[in-house]
Amino acid sequence: MKFTATLLTLLFASLAASTSLFGSSQTILADDDVDVPGKNPLKFCQANDNYLLTIDFVDLTPNPPLPGKTLTIKAAGNFTADVAEGAYINLSVKYGLITLLRRQADLCEQMKNVDEECPLDGEKVLTKDVELPSRIPPGSYSVLADVYTKDDEQITCLIADVHF
Ligand SMILES: *[C@@H]1O[C@H](CO)[C@@H](O)[C@H](O)[C@H]1NC(C)=O
Ligand SMILES: *[C@@H]1O[C@H](CO)[C@@H](O)[C@H](O)[C@H]1NC(C)=O
Fold first, then answer.
1. Measuring CA to CA, which residue among 129, 103, 108 is closest to residue 3?
2. Whose alpha carbon is nearest atom 6 of ligand 2?
3. Nearest CA residue ID for atom 9, ligand 2
4. What is the pTM of this model?
5. 22: pLDDT strictly greater than 80
6. Which residue's CA is the closest to the ligand 1 atom numbered 14?
7. 132 Cβ contact partners less than 8 Å away, ≥ 6 residues apart
8. CB of 56 closer than 6 A to ligand 1?
9. What is the whole-number distance in angstroms between the Cα of residue 134 and the centre of ligand 2?
10. What pLDDT is attached to residue 6?
11. By C-alpha distance, which of 155, 161, 143 is closest to 7?
12. By three-state DSSP, how is residue 135 classified?
């Protein structure tokens, strides 16, 4: 399970890292339809009323996160339909134009890292501490997490752009 733990940490770290960009750049266009609610730099891939997960908020502390510091992620959302075993995350991480990682991960496995089990349904509140590395190679990172049920119904799709 080392792989999934690493993947989750990478995802959080990458998402966290994107907050730095958000904090230091005024050039990102605000679009209420695609901004994820809360103190975070996340966007939905597209405005979509059909996602099975409604995200109430995602809060990062500190925001922006700091290298070498513990990042606390708190999130709340509502699964409007049951999500059973077989749900998956299509994750890609790009560094500049280079794809560093393109992986499929098991959503239910990942949820064990935050003490949740499938089937997922109803309101969930999650808290997770992540240790951020103190040294991160400089550059632009882009993380995309596209999440589906076993039957390819879209649960959510989140995107984060990162600059170190
Ligand atoms: C969560 O979703 C269910 C199903 O759509 C709905 O009945 C319920 O009211 C929602 N809960 C909240 C707190 O929005
Ligand atoms: C998820 O990724 C797999 C492997 O790359 C691909 O075959 C599949 O079509 C992707 N699923 C969706 C819904 O994009």
1. 103
2. 90
3. 90
4. 0.80
5. no
6. 78
7. 13, 16, 17, 65, 66, 67, 68, 69, 70, 71
8. no
9. 33
10. 47
11. 143
12. coil
